[in-house]
Amino acid sequence: AQGLLWENKSSVSEFILLGFSAKLQTQRFLFALFLVLYVMIVLGNGLIINLIRIDSRLHTPMYFFLANLSFLDISYSSTTMPQMLIHLLLKRKTISFSGCTAQMYIFLSLGITECVLYAVMAYDRYLAICHPLHYTSMMSKSSCVKMAVGSWACGFLFAMLHTSFTMRLPYCGPNEINHFFCEVPAILELACADTHVNEVVDFVLGVILLMTPLSLIVISYMFILGTILKIRSAEGKFKAFSTCTSHITVVTLFYGAAMFMYMRPASNYNPERDKKFSLFYNVVSALLNPCIYSLRNKEIKGALCKWVCIQ
User: Fold this and answer.
1) Per the omega criterion (within 30 degrees of 0), is the bond before 271 cis?
2) Mind telling me which Pfam families this protein's record contains (predicted)?
3) Which residue intervals of the chain are DSSP H helices?
4) Per-residue CA distances from 287 to 52, 103, 104, 192, 253 (Å)
5) Separation of alpha carbons 33 and 16, rounded Å
6) What is the DSSP code (8-state) at residue 58?
7) How high is the pLDDT of residue 9?
8) What are phi and psi of 243, to 5 degrees?
9) Is beta strand 14-17 parallel, antiparallel or unpaired with respect to 176-177?
10) What is the DSSP annotation of 215-262?
11) What does the alpha-carbon distance between residue 232 and residue 237 come to, in Å, rounded to a whole number?
């Protein structure tokens, strides 16, 4: 019903996604490139999920959250990339108003969930390093499930607010979105109404949903760093910090691009530049996550070797 309400306020029934280059040869190259990248994202993150599922040594809170992250990355990319691939083969690159609304909502839901999940993973590392004696009791199976469910609930709840503020605006034309999917900044450019309130709301939500988890991550690592510095042996320090480096790397990659997109003045909007940043946290981040975690993680590499030997 809500989706119909948004649609009735607009004379536009569908949008045209301009995507990337209009040259046929370039589109064919991009189709092959993005198809390979999408397959790698699905296979890489799917492998992480499967290894965690079948190897009992990985049935720990840290890998439970990592499996959630891998599932998020697959879902995240699957929200935009299959449509992008189809549009690279078609002359008419359209998406219905309701389809655009659904894509925006799902994309935002998964993105916000990932932000919160990164904070949960930092909290897990904080407990493991700073309070090892209480770690097992504080990170019980039920506690981990509640944290994961809470992350997903935050994502889908706040995304509804974000989407409703965008799609309730009237869209009278033009209907060409200079992007490869329905992202908020690109959609707001087409509204035939004053978007100042939306820009303020989007900025405030961006601060809350990005800076709050990021602040918790920074605080967690400040305590972790303080604990690591108290460890006397260099080997002990390295072992403690090595469990955090993968998480720090992926957080830096994800938050850097996301903060640029959702925490900057509307006057700085540049469609061509924004498409590149969207590709980064939509495609590159999801592609690199399994590589970063597997290459820097002995347990994951051990589980992979064991699985390959069984096969």
Assistant:
1) no
2) 7tm_4 (PF13853)
3) 2-8, 24-54, 61-87, 97-130, 132-138, 141-167, 184-188, 196-206, 212-230, 234-262, 271-279, 285-295, 298-310
4) 18, 20, 21, 37, 11
5) 22
6) G
7) 57
8) -75, -10
9) parallel
10) HHHHHHHHHHHHHHHH--SHHHHHHHHHHHHHHHHHHHHHHHHHHHHH
11) 8
CB < 8 Å & 24+ apart, contacts of 200-205: 201/165, 202/162, 202/165, 202/166, 202/262, 203/262, 203/263, 205/158, 205/161, 205/162, 205/262
CA 209 to each of CA 116, 255, 284: distance values in angstroms, whole numbers, following the listed order: 8, 11, 21
The answer to whether 41 and 287 have CB atoms below 8 angstroms apart is yes
The reported pLDDT for the residue numbered 310 is: 61
Of 86 and 24, more confident: 86
Q: Is 310 helix (H, G, I), strand (E, B) or coil?
A: helix
Task: State the pLDDT at residue 2.
Answer: 42
- Which residue from 165, 189, 172 is spatially nearest to 271, judged by alpha carbons? 189
- The Cα 205–Cα 202 span in angstroms is 5
* CB-based burial, 149-161: b 16+ in 10 Å, e otherwise: eebbebbeebbee
CA distance 259 to 252: 10
Q: Between residues 298 and 96, which one has the greater pLDDT?
A: 96
Q: Residue 160 corresponds to which tokens in the numbers above?
A: 């509804």
In angstroms, the CA 46 to CA 52 distance is: 10
How many beta carbons lie within 10 A of that of residue 141, not counting itself? 10
* Alpha carbons 231 and 241: distance in angstroms, whole number: 11
